[in-house]
Amino acid sequence: MEDIQTRLHQLDEPSDALVQDMARLRGDILILGVGGKIGPSLAILARRAVERSGVSRRVIGVSRFSEKGLEERLQRSGIETFRADLLDDAALQALPTAENVLYLAGTKFGTTGKEPFTWAMNTYLPGRVAEKYRGSRMVVYSTGNVYPFTLTSSGGADERTPPAPVGEYGASCLGRERIFEYFSGEYQSPLVIYRLNYANDLRYGVLVEIAKAVRGGQPLDVTTGHVNVIWQADANEMTLRALHHASVPAKVLNITGPETVSVRWIAEEFGGLMGTAPVFNGEEQPKALLSNAAESFRLFGYPRVPLKEMIRLTAQWLCQGGETIQKPTHFQEREGQF
Fold it and tell me: Is 272 part of a structural domain of the chain?
């Protein structure tokens, strides 16, 4: 694993552009929901960029920290941590203030059958957080699930596409956006709505799911035949750099890779690298959940890690026995049932 670990370390280093943005940012950085899939790598990238910038500022992570050892790992990386259930209002109000807030809290998987909790987390809680951090500059994570399915030939939904979520999860996420937008206007709190679709690292993501199916000889459903993917470290860079684009009214940004990429093509690429012919079932439909991220590329440039590099690294990781986590994306879901 030594070679791939060296390569991963290189890919996860902050870019010069990010370091420059951190140097001119004012105030500390607070990450709410740091314990999820994306939060730890985002916090560590922020800490590294701050250190390289030469400007003293705190990077603070808040979570319930249900994953054993995560809090200690973040602390060793120079990140201050606070344990809190954000739905506990007393715990929320006791958290430190910060000029820059990254909001990653929310729930997706297992939401079917738990709709009241889904709406509490995704729509009620944002109002409490927006009140607590009124006046702070905020980047709020959302999802491409707020969009309707679009033709695979269309280039995907861009920020001007009217939301039309399928299912209660997507609807609750649109609720989150609207609540934050409301309080942004009320308190003149600069805001970015950050619609991510789909982040990948070597332990999870669309690419890992396709690669595991190919390697295991499992039939791969191609009904949802096209996806967008982005390397998680690139998405994290854009999160931190987006702080400089927070505004009133809110700035909406789609974050994903530049390709509308065929699931069948991805599987065949993995098959060639792993020496296993993929098995398919289903028939590609003309529409899928797709995002157009051209505006983010205008602001930040194209992702540093191209699609073929992501595929190559993922294949190498799995073939060498690298660990994965059981947090599927459900990218093939077409009815909004998560």
Answer: no
Enclosing domain of residue 13: 2-198+232-256+290-303
Look at the alpha carbons of 165, 168, 171, 176 in this order and tell me if their dihedral is positive or negative. Answer: negative
pLDDT at 1 over 70: no
Share of the chain above pLDDT 70, in %: 99
With tokens 């003293």, the residue in question is: 56
Q: Is residue 90 part of a domain?
A: yes
Mean pLDDT across the chain, nearest whole number? 95
pLDDT range class, residue 45, cuts 50, 70, 90: very high
- Residue 317 domain-assigned (yes or no): no
CATH of residue 136: 3.40.50.720
Phi first, then psi: give them for residue 82, nearest 5 degrees. Answer: -135, 130
DSSP single-letter state for residue 243: G
Using pLDDT thresholds of 50, 70 and 90, give the confidence band for residue 125: very high
Would residue 165 count as lying in a domain?
yes
Residue 93: how many CB atoms within 10 A of its CB?
11
Is the pLDDT at 198 greater than 80? The verdict is: yes
Instruction: Provide the number of structural domains found in the chain.
Output: 1
Angle at 98 between CA 58 and CA 88, to 5 degrees: 110
| Pairing verdict, β 191-196 and 137-143 | parallel
